[in-house]
Amino acid sequence: MSVSSSTKSVRKNTSRRKGLSINAQMIPTLAAVVIFIVMLIMGQALFGNYFKLGFVSNLFNDHAYLIILAVAMTFPILTGGIDLSVGAIVAITAIVGMKMLAVGLNPWLVMLTMILIGAAFGLLAGVLIEEFNMQPFIATLATQFLARGIASIISTDSLTMPKDNGFSWIGGRGLIIIDNPKISNDLNFNAGVLIALAVVIFGYFMLHKTRTGRTIYAIGGSRSSAELMGLPAKRTQYIIYLTSAVLASIASIVYTANIGSAKNTVGVGWELDAIASVVIGGTIITGGFGYVLGSVLGALVRSTLEPLTTDFGVPAEAVTIVVGLMILVFVVLQRAVSALNKQE
Amino acid sequence: MASERKAQSSNSVVKRLLSNNLTWSVVALIVLVIICTIFDHGFLRLEWNTNTGGLAGPLITVLQESARYLMIATGMTLVISTAGIDLSVGSVMAVAGAASMQLLVSGTNVWVAILLSLLIGLVVGCINGALISLLGLQPFITTLIMMLAGRGVAKVITSGQNTDASQIAGGAPLRWIANGFILGIPANFVIALIIVILVGLVARKTAMGMMIESVGINQEASRMTGIKPRNILFLVYAISGVLAAIAGLFATASVMRVDVVKTGQDMEMYAILAVVIGGTSLLGGKFSLSGSALGAVIIAMIRKTIITLGIDSAATPAFFAVVVILICVMQAPKIHNLSAELKRRRAVENSRKAVAA
Amino acid sequence: MTATEPIVVMKGITIEFPGVKALDGVDLRLFPGEVHALMGENGAGKSTMIKALTGVYKINAGSITVAGKPVTFSGTADAQQAGVATVYQEVNLCTNLSIGENVMLGHEIRGPFGIDWRKTHKEAQKHLSSMGLSDLDPRAPLSSISIAMQQLVAIARAMVIDAKVLILDEPTSSLDANEVQELFAIMRKVRDSGVAILFVSHFLDQIYEITDRLTILRNGQFIKEVMTKETPRAELIGMMIGKSAEELSQIGAKKSRRVSKEGEKPIVQVKGLGHKGKIQPTDEQIYAGEVVGFAGLLGSGRTELGRLLFGADKPETGEYELNGKKIAINDPHTALKNRIAYSTENRRDEGIIGDLTVRQNILIALQATRGMFRPIAKKEADAIVDKYMKELNVRPADPDKLIKNLSGGNQQKVLLARWLATNPELLILDEPTRGIDIGAKAEIQQAVLDLAQQGMGVVFISSELEEVVRLSDNITVLKDHKKIADIVNDETVSQETIVDTIARSGKEA
């Protein structure tokens, strides 16, 4: 026997396995694509406005924040972790931002402060996870309570932006691509969508084009292997939770600019929406496999759910049940796929 | 020699007391009571209220409020012991509360309403248990979904209203459970205590406790000893569901009104905190029900303290988050090994110097 | 080889774990262009020493110099920075990534727009080729190749970081003879390029074939550093176990031949028992009072067969007969209820329940067969615990100690007690003597023979052929997930017989 003979047999093996395993792991993502298309077609067929440019514009304009949150959540989930604090970080940064705008501070300074506050919570989560061995979901649950608690201490009122704030332009009409005579049917993307696009590109670049990104995948595969390979696992974990928290602050900026007001209860349950987006988009909840673009797709599915359920007359309070069921179905699907892979 | 040994043994008793979580919990409880008494000199007063037929006073309200924490903390202790988590307890409380109120309003017999509410809690717990044990899903994601969906279910049950059953005449027994007294002590506290003791007896007098711990310590090794980990996991989530439903009844019956947003809100955090205070590790394994029970009372006491000190109630979650973080940090191996690590560094430094010299 | 300066000098290394001194003042020198073997019994401290050099464990005393510079590693990244690379027995790569990515992780080639994947894969290809793995597609997932191949990929990775020292921790235990030769060819190439190699293996033949220098450890202490060529085998073994060869031959009890009775039925008889990817359909039978040895390399299917007999994995094919009656054994609970017990090879992960007491660990299996709500009466429990702790000489003799605080040998005895407490007819022991000291080893071997004498059927699985040959009535030889021979163990059978059987089957295939 020689080296070549053994590698040949390996190779044969490889091509067979490659096709199978990748296909199997793609199943959830493909399912998400199908679901999205079906939702749109169904909406169009039954209610007739889902292909309208105005609808598409609003879908993006109103949910740019969710796309950003989905990208944010992709990072921890890729390592098998989770960040339950994103919704609460949106709340505290929004409240602080509103308060600062109310006293007429420079909007850029306001944004910077919001981002720094988010970063502080991300750093705290990182410290708790890495230095004190807390499980990510416990650590970020604690920071969630902390952030929302502080937000509630600052204010429990609904705060509105003052006029001329140098802030709402983010949620304005933005880039008009197709200007239809009827304003409700323009194809326009506000600055929030462009920020979301930038975030998506950043997420893609970070995960696929940097060593830190590859380390994130390696940690998701096996933390101990990553460490034994000499990869900076600890530093990467800090980066992950910092990134998700900072992106949550950016989502907060985009959201408040679009809505024009904020309350301490804003963002309750958004971590679930973000998790739903990520999971629907094909990222495995136990880590190691997934991609940012999938999460964007997941966010779009989640966003389309809102008008669709409303059009169907589903009561608003039942939407959370639908979202919960959706996460459940996809997590079970992932579980089945990984069991299938293992058997192979 | 003999006296030395004696000193040593008494020393070790002190040491054991100091290293015992229960001791620290009791100390914490006493400190909280003292703080409250300083701020409110009447904090310790007890009087007989002839209207209710029970004792009255700040401490009694603490007991009354702690009943619900006792319930969820007990369930959570068993779940955490298996290295799991149940984030859905708050939502189950809301669902059970909503169901009982809605049933009462629709004219159902109060006992049937109570039974059905508990049944709903059991069903939710069983769904959690089935997903986790049969499908092998991660506990936190499963119960997180249930936390979200459960709140939705509660809202669907009441059609989004905060159903009020205080005017329903047949609701008296339920009202008594939450507000009545047995031998002068709040009935809900007595009931909760009896349930905790029952669970404790079953856990420790049969092999249930050992098997739960065993699964939490090493699931695969447990399976190899013939234990069926799936059954154990299913069991603990089912128990947690029922106990959360009881907590939900306590919480809604005290005002005979369910608030679909606020009932059971943040309860998962309180339950986790009570368990952690009680000395059960979040990584699973050995559990202490008495520790968790004490933890539950401490939580009620902390809430009372916050009110007594006049701190804005909005600060409560932030305050509890800080406590959780502090306790977890203190339990972290890094802190425990700090002195050993310092010693090690010194030794290496010395041997380095020795080599250099 | 050459009388150059050593590249690594470890002096007076001491490592303490809570309650145990794992290493006590151990020295080690590694020379460039040499293969150096770390020798010692299980538990001698070899892997602890390696982990000290790779920065996994922090040292309590001593010093490490690499290339003349004193170093303190606070993690594996530090060690790799200093040029120390390690390939572990359980390959530590990421199976969710591609082969090429695993080779290049942390060293991807970057262009102006982040990682340049084309160049990175090309570089990976180059390193793989230099290991003779040019046929491997760097874009294929790592999970698509065998463990043996993954090991070579791990070595390729070590070359990427330009290692000056390459540590190979038991790389050969899951390889067959040809794969070992492939590995050795690569090791020689790496050695000749001036890299110092630290090699750990249990196979003496391999040690004498590939290494230049030996460091011997025993019970966490440094015994001696010698040149391989100048050290006869007997002397080496003597240093490893602290006893001379003659003494050694007297330790183990030997199985007296079991006399089979006319018309006797086996306790367990299986036909075509198999599980895809684990073990091909296999026939096996075990009689009362018989010791059946399972022999084969790691990954041969010896453990897998044992697990199927116990229902630890659910069999996919085959028939199971217990005392002549057809039965389905699909999980451990059913097996134990039917008086079949299995002691795992993986004591830490599948055996002990660390935070429970010795007492609880002994009683738990019996309790599980009775059911959760029928607790064992205190009196009966005390009697069982007392009996087995005495019989098996468990130290310390305190049943309320946590089992995780016992030594490996005593943990193993407690586990044995656990299975004996269920009063099994068939006892399957997977590597019961691995990683325990020689005294405990002899005690456990004696216990096995006593149990068979009392009429229990025993399956004895071990990687140490010497043990298998000495204790078994019949030996089942396995290779590549398949049973290849049934050997009746009479006087003509020796370790060589089994080694030959395994080697011959390779050539035919």
TrEMBL record, chain A:
It comes from the Bacteria. InterPro entries: ABC_transp_permease. One of its GO terms (cellular component) is plasma membrane. It is a multi-pass membrane protein. The chain crosses the membrane at residues 20-43, 63-96, 108-129, 189-207, 238-255, 275-300, 312-333. CDD domains: TM_PBP1_transp_AraH_like. GO terms for molecular function: transmembrane transporter activity. The keyword Ion transport does not apply. It is found in: Cell membrane. Keywords: Cell membrane, Membrane, Transmembrane, Transmembrane helix. This is Sugar ABC transporter permease. It comes from Galliscardovia ingluviei.
UniProtKB/TrEMBL annotation, chain B:
Pfam families: BPD_transp_2 (PF02653). InterPro entries: ABC_transp_permease. It is found in: Cell membrane. GO terms for cellular component: plasma membrane. CDD domains: TM_PBP1_transp_AraH_like (cd06579). One of its GO terms (molecular function) is transmembrane transporter activity. The keyword Transmembrane applies. Keywords: Cell membrane, Membrane, Transmembrane, Transmembrane helix. This is ABC transporter permease.
TrEMBL record, chain C:
Its main location: membrane. It holds the Pfam family ABC_tran. The keyword Cell membrane applies. SMART domains: AAA. SUPFAM superfamilies: P-loop containing nucleoside triphosphate hydrolases. One of its GO terms (cellular component) is plasma membrane. Keywords: ATP-binding, Cell membrane, Membrane, Nucleotide-binding, Repeat, Translocase, Transport. The keyword ATP-binding applies. InterPro entries: AAA+_ATPase, ABC_carbohydrate_import_ATPase, ABC_transporter-like_ATP-bd, ABC_transporter-like_CS, P-loop_NTPase. It is a peripheral membrane protein. Residues 8-244, 254-505 form the ABC transporter domain. It is found in: Cell membrane. One of its GO terms (molecular function) is ATP hydrolysis activity. It comes from the Bacteria. This is ABC transporter ATP-binding protein. The lineage of its organism: Bacteria, Bacillati, Actinomycetota, Actinomycetes, Bifidobacteriales.
